[in-house]
Design a protein that fits this description.
single chain, alpha/beta, about 20% strand, elongated, Ribbon_hlx_hlx
């Protein structure tokens, strides 16, 4: 009896790790708030602070999204998507808030002939070679 091997779908991560440097006094204040039970840990406090700031500036962000015609969330560009764009003789201006993904099987020549510019506020996932090829088009 032969064993079947199934490839699990690659999981798309719903967050990205960032690193910040804080002064010792700010860090001490955070630790006090955690110790007093206002937050479960440092990360909880920092996430809450960021969300509060995003709420504070929500109208400004909405206006920018409309003005710049940005897509929000996850936008995936498959090889087939880009081949369709190429067949139509068009080029894409990719503008995303969130995560933009260019599929791993997209060759560099296809990316060059179909992607005019990329602006991502968040994260861009693509093969290293495609990112290098499009480096002058990524803003």
């Amino acid at each position: 009896m032969g064993a079947e091997i199934h490839r699990l779908r690659d999981k798309i991560c719903d967050s990205e790790k960032i690193t910040i440097n804080l002064g010792y006094v700010d860090l001490g204040h955070i630790d006090l708030l955690v110790r007093e039970g206002f937050y479960s840990n440092r990360t909880d406090m920092i996430r809450t602070a960021i969300r509060n700031q995003l709420r504070l500036h929500a109208d400004d962000v909405k206006q920018t999204i409309v003005r710049e015609t940005l897509e929000i969330g996850l936008r995936h560009y498959s090889r087939e998507d880009l081949e369709t764009v190429k067949a139509a003789g068009e080029m894409l201006s990719i503008k995303v808030i969130g995560l933009a993904i260019i599929a791993d099987d997209v060759p560099c020549d296809l990316a060059l002939s179909t992607i005019k510019s990329i602006t991502v506020h968040g994260a861009l996932q693509a093969s290293k070679v495609v990112k290098m090829t499009l480096a002058d088009r990524i803003r």
